[in-house]
Each structure stands twice: as C-alpha cells, then as structure tokens.
Amino acid sequence: MKDPPTPLFKGCLFFVVKKNFDKKRDLYIEENLDDNRTKMEKNFVFIDTQNINLSTQDQWWKLDRKKFNKYLKKKYKAVKIYLFIWYVPENQSMYTFFQNCWYTLIFKPVLELKNWQTKWNVDAELVLQAMIDYKKYNKAIIITWDGDFACLVRHFYKKNKLLMLIVPNEKKYSIFLKKTAKEKIDSLSNLRSKLEYKKKVAPTK
User: Fold this and answer.
1) Is residue 11 part of a domain?
2) Does the residue 21 lie in any domain?
3) pLDDT of 185 over the 70 cut
4) DSSP 177
C-alpha cells in the first residue's frame, strides 16, 4: 500500500475559499486579526519647536531634523510628529524643509510686542491638538522644557497616556515637569552624538 501524499502546506496556516471553512473558524480568524491590529502601537509626538531651538543653541549644537524624525519613529513607534511653530512668511523654505522631513506643522502667527519684542508661545495650540487627537493615538511623547505643560503631562501620566517627556537639556528644565513626568523623562543632551547636525565637508581634490 502506498503512503498517503505529504500535505502541500504542512504545519502552515493558510486561507482557502471561505466556503471550505466552518463558520466558527472564520469568525475566530477574523477576531484574531482584529486583535493584532489593535495591538499595533500608534504614538504621537508633540514638539515645542522654539523651545527646542533655543535650548540646543544654548548648548552650542544644532538638531538634525531628519535624524530626529527617524529616531522618533524607530524608538517610540511614532506615526505622527507635530511641530508647533511660529509663522513668519520669510521662513517658508524652512517650513517646506520640515514638511519634506515628514513633520506635521501647526502654525501660530508671531505676536509683536512693544519695543520690537516678539512672543513665540505655542502652549495653547499644543495642548489643544493633543486633546483633539486624544483617541487617535495610544501614547504621547511631549518634547519641551516649559513648565506650562506640567498640567498636560500630569494628566497623561495619570491616564497612562504619557510614553515619554523629552527635555532638551537634562540640567535645565522645569521642576514642575520633573515632578509630574517622574521616571518617564529623557534628554536630547544624551542623544547629541546621534542627532547633532553636521555639515557635509566637500571632498578635497
């Protein structure tokens, strides 16, 4: 007597036309596929841009925006990265560059005060967007050193919605953020070697 033929898909799960499956098995597979989808991380990043710029400049280095975007996506599974930024018409080329690096820009017009001073505050815009998108992401990464965001950080921490607070300088940021984010704090200072912008030197002839 001949041995039975070896199954073509031995040990593998495969799909055939639905009519060949028992209805209960179909339902089981569909439910498991849905569970796998829901387990996928969808984290959003909220960046106080001017805050980051001033702090890194104060430390004598410049952040490479392309490297930073890739880092956030790989490290924190970020699917959307917001830059909250002032709007100055003369800076359009810079905004286009940021968008080409896959950042989502939220603008606020610059407020000019007396004596040629300007106000760059984007606190309200960042908090508002974080709450508008609340149900769209699993967890949030907030990047700032400004204590005005302590209430948002505190709320996210209590709701287990805060993945990480990233401060530009570990030696110089609000004590209110330190108390509210607790163990969920990282610093750009620690990442300088990875994320610093370095001009490409033309090869010598």
Assistant:
1) no
2) no
3) yes
4) H
Asked whether residue 88 is assigned to any structural domain, the reply reads yes
Neighbours of 106 (CB within 10 A): 18
Q: Average the pLDDT over 172-189 and give the result.
A: 92
Q: Which residues lie across from 186 on neighbouring strands?
A: 166
Amino acid at 55: S
DSSP state of 114: G
Look up the CATH number of the domain holding residue 128: 3.40.50.1010
Q: Looking at 82-197, list the stretches that DSSP marks H as alpha helix, in order from N- to C-terminal side.
A: 92-100, 123-132, 150-158, 175-181, 192-195
Residue 115: give the domain boundaries.
46-195
Q: State the Cα–Cα distance between residues 61 and 186, nearest whole angstrom.
A: 18
Where does the pLDDT of residue 21 fall: very low under 50, low under 70, confident under 90, or very high at 90 and above? Answer: very low
Question: Is the pLDDT at 59 greater than 90, yes or no?
Answer: no
Phi and psi at 118, nearest 5°, equal -130, 155
Residues 104, 81: Cα–Cα separation, whole Å: 6
How far apart, in whole angstroms, are the C-alpha atoms of residue 72 and residue 45? 8
Cβ count within 10 A of residue 149? 26
pLDDT in tens, 63-120: 899 999 999 999 999 999 999 988 888 889 989 999 999 899 998 877 664 554 455 5
